[in-house]
Design brief:
Helices cover 23% and strands 27% of the residues. The chain is built from 4 helices and 12 strands; from the N terminus they run ααβαβββββββαββββ. Helix 1 (3-18) runs parallel beside helix 3.
Amino acid sequence: MTADDVREAAAALADRALELPELARARTVAAYVSVGSEPGTLTLLDALRERGVRVLLPALLPDNDLDWGAYTGEGSVARVQHGGKMALFEPSGERLGPDAVTGADVVLLPGLAVDGRGMRLGRGGGSYDRVLARLERAGARPALVVLLYDSEVVAHVPEEEHDRLVHAVVTPSGVRRFRSGA
């Protein structure tokens, strides 16, 4: 994809996501800043903030769990290199603790693919598996939405016992809901 394609896809992704009723009524959204070839999220994060939504961003901990901090604009993130792993854009302010995500109305998840059941394939580090398990233990029931390119919605992804279904996928061309959804 060209730089223009990436920008257009990010704008379209934000437009589609903002049409979700779950995001329209959300007071707190746990999200992430895209990296590498992931669909761009900054446009969406800024639009949520303009609506008055509290946006939480993850910070990777040494054990691959996630801490959280508030996103208050592009200047509130810092590029952090994690050893041999990829560099991530993380909140530069106060850390709120791993349990902060349990107060989110919507959790926007990264991924490599999602299938027709709503099974999400992550990058293999287990960070979001821990987040989803934490939500389940806390009895929290946020909408779980994965953000992907259209080509990343596939027929089938592998599944492990700890994997959880998502409620919807948002791509630049639209939204697909899954029967597992709320």
